[in-house]
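Example record

One chain of 322 residues, shown exactly as stored in the release files.
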Amino acid sequence: MGFAVDRDWVRNPAIVQQDTGAEIFAIGDVHSDYIRLTRALNAAGLTEGIPRKPEGAQWRAGGAVLVITGDMIDKGPRAIDVLRLLRALQVSALAKGGRVIVLAGNHEAEFLADPAAPKGKEFASQLAAKGIRSSDVASCKGDIGELLCSLPFGARVNDWFFSHAGNTGGRSLAQLTADLQKGVMKDGFGTRELIGDNSVLEARLNEKGTVWIDADIPDRSEKQLLIAYTAALGVRHIVEGHVPSRVKFADGSAREPGEMFQFLGLLFLIDTGMSEGVDYSRGAVLNITSKSATAICPDGTRTLLWDPIYKQRIGRAAPCRN
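Predicted structure tokens for this chain:
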């Protein structure tokens, strides 16, 4: 557990909600890889080329909405540049009618709960190299601290729900919001609501932990659970990052490492292991319209994952190796 956090929940909500008629984009775990992030953003048409400096990033996607599903820090060399680029894009997008929603991942929450914890160690060393005290950042001081402490933990955009680890426990948006606020106000960023084994930032889908979509088997199948969870949220789809590795589903189908993948049109996995510290792929961007969901590689290659007419059970995009 950490220290209680006094947060302005109106200004910095636990769950962001947005309705839009524009395109939606999403990127999973960047993990400090500034170069691969900028290439992916440019390939998807979200930025004005590759910015020379992170603070100079310019939005070019009009009214589109971009969601970053957390874990911006660790495993790569340039966490500070990643964070400052995303902050610059938030400002630029807002001025041009768009929006960049940056969510917290378990790495950010665990760092804020304890800047000396193993997760966040690489980030702390990068801060120190810039003369920034990690304890100040964890205390919400400075531009980086203010950004990290204000991050939401989930987002509903139209009928899509985004979070780092996907597991909402079958709660409604209102109940999830209330539980997250209560947990943070009582125990800070170390609350079990954020980093407990079955939390919205930490729950697992692979052999390393309890598979959250299998929680009710045999009484309820993975499909039945996902239908119930989306219905409770008032959405039709759940998008998560967090897991770049192989995921095997109860029906025998499997998502392979680095793939962008959808299961039953209900669950979309977008952590492609893009950071050089993971290196399953060079990254990919999920592009959502009213007609389809498509994966975009940094070389511009596009792969259809899902559409509302054919509703294929499984859709996958091979890891982007370019």
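Notes: The radius of gyration is 18 Å.
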